[in-house]
Design goal:
There is one protein chain. The chain has eleven helices and four strands; from the N terminus they run αβαααααααββαβαα. The chain has two domains: about 90 residues, 2-Layer Sandwich (Alpha-Beta Plaits), CATH 3.30.70; about 200 residues, Alpha-lytic protease prodomain-like (Up-down Bundle). The longest helix is centred in the N-terminal third of the chain and has 30 residues. The chain is α+β, with helices and mostly antiparallel strands and about 350 residues long.
Amino acid sequence: MPGAMPPRRLRQGVADMASMGSVAAAPARSKCQKCARSVPWVSFWGNFALAVYKLFVGVLGGSSALIADAMHSFADVVGSVGIVIATRVSAKEPDEDYPYGRGKAEFLGAVFVYTILLFFAFGIVAHSLTLMSSDDLKAPHFATLLGAVVSVFHNVIMFQYLTCVGRRNNSPAILADAFENRADAISSVACIGGILGAMLIHPICDPIAALLVGVIIFWNCQEQLREAIKGLMDTALPDEETDEATDIILGIDGVVDLAFLRTRRTGARYWLDIGIEVDELLDVEAADVIAKKIGAQLSRYPFCHHAEVFVVPHRAEAGESQAEDASRDASQDEEQDESSEDPSAPEDSRDDEQ
């Protein structure tokens, strides 16, 4: 056939495509990336101011629950520093030393945050148990109630803001920081209950509330810590996004079939290894155009960090070929049997006549 590529040349062309068919999918750009760069510092200064305020009010007002909540906020400050470092490291482009990028630095930052909070939770629980066994318990001042209320409003606003930025940028580190503000808001609600109970019922309600704060922090952190560690283990793209990527690839003109699709998380996004089947008579230049189209289409989606495209020739299944060969052989055998039986017919008739 004119213009057809011989099988040997096709195999060589496919080998060349395996080495040159890497298509870098540029990270999706959006308006939210500006927020992603500034949100760690907003979180840092917001948590720092709140922690100083709650510690000051808690010490002067004599509320162990509010002091424990202030320690929680100071842990958030340390976590925010880890988030700043993690997001800056993960934003660096891939290079020779890190060809897959540094996206998993965000998961390391999340593990750092939750580990610190676990230690703080243990300390809060131990201190609360010590206070509960003490005989010198006094009801906290009314101002501590105001401090806890301010903490609730602050953390709810920060949680909404960080969640928006984290989800729009698919950032596990920012989402981890948002989770800490939510946990801080819950612990502040426990503080309100403890302070009111200490003022209206018995002073022991205040350290009980502090104990509850420590338990809440510990329980939530161990769950989130497991999720962060899971992110370090090359988890695959969720099924919904995998189906979406498959539809995109098969929708490109020239793609006969999808040989394989392997995905791994590299931080906020995913690395995709794609094997496509094309017509075995297709030349290398045309196959390269198809590979670039796939990379361009996938780069528009926020889940794609990089798409590596491999091209292989599409051929008939071995089972179908063997079936055709067997059918052809059977037909030839039948024709030979018929031809061998024809000469014997007259001989049989002559024998009958004799």
